[in-house]
Amino acid sequence: MSPNATSSPSRSAFDRKNPLLARVARRELLTAGCDEKETWHFEIDLRDSGLEFLPGDSLAIFPQNDPALADEILRHLGFSGEETVTAPGDGGEKPLRAALIENCAITALDRKFLGKLVEKAGDQADEIARLLDPDHKDAYEHFVWGREIIDCLIRHPGLGWEPQEFVDVLKKLNVRLYSIASSLKARPNACHLTIALVEYESRGRRRRGVCSSWLPHRTDENTPIPCFVTPGKGFRPPAPDEDVPVVMIGPGTGVAPFRAFLQEREVTGAKGKAWLFFGEIHEETCFFYRDEWERQLRDGVLHRLTTAWSRDQAQKVYVQHKVAEEGAELWKWLEEGAILYVCGDAQRMAPDVDKALHEVIATHGGRTPEQAAEYVARMRQEKRYRRDVY
Ligand SMILES: Cc1cc2nc3c(=O)[nH]c(=O)nc-3n(C[C@H](O)[C@H](O)[C@H](O)COP(=O)(O)OP(=O)(O)OC[C@H]3O[C@@H](n4cnc5c(N)ncnc54)[C@H](O)[C@@H]3O)c2cc1C
Ligand SMILES: NC(=O)c1ccc[n+]([C@@H]2O[C@H](COP(=O)([O-])OP(=O)(O)OC[C@H]3O[C@@H](n4cnc5c(N)ncnc54)[C@H](OP(=O)(O)O)[C@@H]3O)[C@@H](O)[C@H]2O)c1
For residue 201, is pLDDT > 70? Predict the structure, then answer.
C-alpha cells in the first residue's frame, strides 16, 4: 500500500491528559419508531479546536456516571455526598458525590472491590471469597456478569465504609471509544459518531451503559464532552489513487467507520469499487444513513449495497448470510485484490463473518477448507483483511 494522506498517523494536540472539551452540535435518533433498540447519531462541534483525525480513527470520550445511581450508592452507604475525598486519577479533592459521578467507576465489579468487600463482611461474604480463588475463574466471571457494585451494597449493608476507603477501592472512570463516522475532508469542523445505547435487565434492575446513556440522555448542547482521538492502527481506506476494490462489512454501529471511508472516498475521488454490507434489526426503522448510501450509489461512490434485516422475518438474516448469498460476486472482488474490512461486534458477528468468508473462498474459489484458510491467512498478511471489532 502506498504511503498517502489517509495512511499517515493522526496528529492532534489533545490526548488523555489534555482532552478537548467539545460540545454536541446535533443529535438524531437513528432508530426512531423502533422500540427494541436505541442508536444515536451525534455531531461533535470541532470549530476552532484543531482536533484532527483520519478515517478509521476513534474518538475516546470521558463519560459521567448517572447521578441517580451515585445517589443510590450514597444512600446505601449512609453518606450525604458532601464528604470531601481525594478522587482517583487527576480528580483531586472534591465532594464524594461529585467524585462518584465524575471520576470513579461505580458500576462494574472487579477483584479489588470484591476483595475489600470480603475483608469487611467476613463470614457473610464467604461465597464471594471462594470466587476470588484463581481456580474459580469461570464461577467468578459468571458472578460478575450482570451484577454491579450497587447489588453488593444492597446485599451486604452496614459494613461501616469510610468515604475515602470506598473511593480508594473503585477504579478510575475510563474513556469509551467510538469509531468516527465522518471524514474531516468532507465535514470540516465536525466529528460524527454512531452510538448504540447499551441497555439490559439483570437481577430485576434495568441497567444502562455509562457512556452510551450519558451522551444521549444526560448531556445537552452546553455539556463539555472531554475527548481525544485514538488512531485506527491500520484500519484505513486505500489511497485515493489506488485502484483497489473495497468490501466493508459493518452491521449495527459497525457501519460508522465506513461512513467516514465513503465520505473521504467521495471528496478525494477515490478509484476502485466499493461494496457495503449493512445489517440491523428492521429495515423500516433501523436503516441508518439510508439516504446517504442511496445517493452514493447513484453517484457511483458506492457500487453495491447489501442489507440484512435480522428481525423482519421469522428466521434471523445476518450479514454473513448475505456474504454467502453473494459469494460468487464476492469471490470475483477478492480475486481482483479487494480489501475486506469488518467492523462491529467482536463476540458473535466477526467470527461468523470470518466463517462465511472461508466458505465463500472454498465454494466459489474451488478450495479445500485448508486452502481457504491459507487464502485468508495470505489476505491478512497482505493487509487485505482488516478488522476493527469490539
Ligand atoms: C475501537 C472501538 C470502537 C468502538 N466504536 C463504537 C461505535 O462506533 N459505536 C458504539 O456504540 N460503540 C462503539 N464501541 C463500544 C464502546 O466503546 C462502548 O464499549 C459501548 O458504548 C458501551 O459503553 P458504555 O459506557 O455505554 O457501557 P458500560 O458502562 O461500559 O457497560 C458495558 C458493560 O455492560 C455489561 N453488559 C452489557 N450488556 C450486558 C448484558 N446483556 N448482560 C449483562 N451485562 C451486560 C458488560 O460488562 C459490558 O462490558 C467501540 C469500542 C471500541 C473498542
Ligand atoms: N457481546 C455481546 O453479546 C453483544 C451483543 C450485542 C451487542 N453488543 C455490543 O453492543 C454494542 C452495540 O451493538 P450494535 O447495536 O452496534 O449492533 P448489534 O447488537 O451487533 O446488532 C446489529 C445487527 O447485527 C445482528 N447480529 C446479531 N448477532 C449477529 C451475528 N452473530 N452475526 C451477524 N449479525 C448479528 C443483530 O441482530 P439481532 O439483534 O436481531 O440478533 C442486528 O441486526 C456494541 O458495542 C456491540 O459490541 C455485544
Answer: yes
Do β-strands 39-45 and 225-230 pair in parallel, antiparallel, or remain unpaired? unpaired
The domain 67-168 belongs to what CATH superfamily? NADPH-cytochrome p450 Reductase; Chain A, domain 3 (1.20.990.10)
Closest approach atom of ligand 2 to CA 253: 16
Q: What percent of the chain has pLDDT over 70?
A: 97
Q: Are 364 and 331 in contact (CB under 8 A)?
A: yes
- Name the residue with the closest Cα to ligand 2, atom 20: 345
Nearest ligand, CA 308: 2
As a whole number of angstroms, the distance between CA 147 and CA 203 comes to: 8
Q: If pLDDT is split at 50, 70 and 90, which confidence band does 11 have?
A: low
* Domain spans of the chain, in order of start: 20-63+175-230, 67-168, 246-389
Residue with CA closest to ligand 2 atom 30: 349
> For 317-351, what is each residue's pLDDT tens digit?
999 999 999 999 999 999 999 999 999 999 999 99
* Pocket probe mutation, ligand 2, options 323, 345, 352, 389, max atoms within 8 Å of Cβ: 345
Dist CA 244 CA 235 (whole Å): 15
